[in-house]
């Protein structure tokens, strides 16, 4: 049995690492840039952030269809990457003109639009190509997606540190340098992919993967043109149901870029020996925890599998939601025990991000691998787009929920009868939402596992 992974996996690892450096470098600065440089208020910033990140994950549905039917994965990745690089440099230009809002704001919206379009072409196709490196029944796929996921988190760890150090200085004029670094990261992603794609992106038979329809081999075309069976429909139903529950995970998790950024900026004691930790740096906590614990979690699942006790994928994902709920419970308890006007210790936020990261490891790489294993070949990229469609809905929902962040001197927000009078009330909203979704998913795992027809 093969244990080493194909070299193409490490090419996709590097390509995705640099792209995620670009995206998360942007994300670390976006809300702060809107507040400080463009003079948007918190409610508008939260809403726009949710709309932007929602559209970033909505367009992969279209990008997956374009790849499956017309361009193939490779061309889609190249065009998407070029659009995203242009978008980041448009944000750099916006930051350069921040004192002239009539110029800065249109450039800002142009940059967001280009990133949205580019991500739609890039995101589902690089994730799909990981699975194409292996045969359909290859047991290395889960491990491959865990390695790939580490690339995502390596990029997202360094992004807030580098882009945040350059852009989050307290001087609005410096935001542009953070965006410039993000654009340069995207160019690095494209260069790596262009240089090595032909040599390393091949399937076990030695055929080039990710090609346009007219360039696919006969065997690849036959797999994609096969008629759908009842088993295929059952498995697609599972993808749809799981995607629904994923909405609640990411809607809470993505508070990292908005309400938790507001919280870290205003209500957290960020001083260490007289030095103030930049707000954007806290977004590196999640990826560093993922990098540390991903190999441990992978070995943990392998150990359970050897004892025939490994949980099914939906069960693991339910655990992810419950861990997310526990993380918000920690920060809710933290803000409740401090006196009004007193800033909270950073350690509470660190503990919350650790629990969120463990929850992410139970849900996100498992979900990517599951979609690849369950999706019929003819709809592989499209159904990966459906997975990201759930993330799109979650990010839009995250922006709405972040708009309920309580502010002194303003009327108390109310969410479905839940009056949010304090930060404790706000964070408890996510405790309840995540716990309820996790508990319901746990109860439905038997129904879902039956319809996966042997796929775990």
From TrEMBL:
Transmembrane residue ranges: 21-40, 46-66, 78-97, 103-122, 143-162, 177-196, 233-253, 285-305, 317-335, 347-368, 380-406, 426-448
GO cellular component assignments: plasma membrane
Pfam families: PTR2 (PF00854)
Entry keyword set: Cell membrane, Membrane, Peptide transport, Protein transport, Transmembrane, Transmembrane helix, Transport
PROSITE patterns (UniProt xref): PTR2_2
GO BP terms: oligopeptide transport
A GO molecular function held by the record: peptide transmembrane transporter activity
Membrane topology term: Multi-pass membrane protein
Cellular location(s): Cell membrane; Membrane
InterPro entries per the UniProt record, alphabetical: Dipep/tripep_permease, MFS_trans_sf, MFS_Transporters, POT_fam, PTR2_symporter_CS
Family from the record: Belongs to the major facilitator superfamily. Proton-dependent oligopeptide transporter (POT/PTR) (TC 2.A.17) family.
Protein name in UniProt: Peptide MFS transporter
Organism (species): Chitinibacter bivalviorum
Lineage of the species this protein comes from: Bacteria, Pseudomonadati, Pseudomonadota, Betaproteobacteria, Neisseriales
């Amino acid at each position: 049995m093969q244990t080493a992974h194909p070299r193409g996996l490490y090419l996709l690892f590097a390509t995705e690492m640099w792209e995620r450096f670009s995206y998360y470098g942007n994300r670390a600065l976006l809300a702060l840039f809107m507040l400080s440089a463009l003079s948007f208020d918190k409610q508008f910033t939260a809403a726009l952030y949710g709309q932007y990140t929602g559209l970033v994950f909505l367009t992969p549905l279209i990008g997956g269809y374009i790849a499956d039917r017309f361009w193939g994965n490779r061309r889609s990745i190249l065009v998407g990457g070029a659009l995203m690089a242009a978008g980041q440099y448009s944000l750099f230009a916006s930051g350069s003109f921040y004192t002239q809002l009539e110029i800065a704001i249109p450039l800002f919206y142009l940059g967001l639009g280009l990133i949205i379009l580019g991500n739609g072409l890039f995101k589902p196709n690089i994730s799909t190509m990981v699975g194409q490196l292996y045969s359909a029944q290859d047991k290395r796929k889960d491990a491959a997606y865990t390695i790939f996921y580490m690339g995502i988190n390596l990029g997202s760890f360094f992004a807030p540190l580098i882009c945040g150090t350059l852009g989050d200085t307290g001087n609005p004029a410096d935001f542009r340098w953070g965006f410039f670094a993000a654009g340069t990261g995207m160019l690095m992603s494209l260069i790596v992919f262009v240089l090595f794609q032909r040599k390393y992106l091949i399937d076990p038979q030695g055929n080039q993967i990710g090609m346009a329809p007219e360039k696919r081999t006969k065997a690849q075309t036959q797999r994609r043109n096969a008629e759908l069976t009842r088993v295929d429909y059952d498995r697609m139903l599972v993808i749809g149901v799981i995607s629904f529950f994923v909405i609640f995970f990411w809607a809470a998790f993505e508070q990292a870029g908005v309400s938790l950024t507001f919280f870290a900026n205003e209500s957290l004691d960020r001083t260490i020996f007289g030095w103030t930790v930049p707000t954007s740096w806290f977004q590196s906590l999640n990826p560093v925890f993922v990098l540390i614990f991903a190999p441990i979690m992978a070995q943990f699942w392998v150990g359970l599998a050897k004892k025939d006790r490994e949980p099914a994928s939906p069960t693991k994902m339910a655990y992810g939601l419950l861990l997310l709920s526990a993380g918000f419970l920690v920060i809710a308890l933290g803000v409740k025990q401090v006196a009004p006007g007193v800033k909270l210790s950073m350690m509470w936020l660190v503990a919350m991000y650790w629990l969120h990261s463990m929850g992410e490891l139970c849900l996100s790489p498992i979900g990517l691998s599951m979609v690849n294993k369950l999706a019929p070949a003819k709809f592989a990229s499209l159904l990966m787009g459906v997975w990201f469609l759930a993330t799109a809905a979650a990010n839009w929902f995250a922006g709405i929920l972040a708009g309920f962040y309580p502010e002194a001197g303003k009327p108390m927000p109310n969410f479905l009868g839940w009056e949010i009078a304090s930060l404790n009330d706000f964070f408890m909203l996510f405790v309840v939402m995540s716990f309820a979704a996790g508990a319901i998913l746990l109860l439905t795992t038997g129904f879902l596992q039956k319809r996966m027809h042997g796929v775990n």
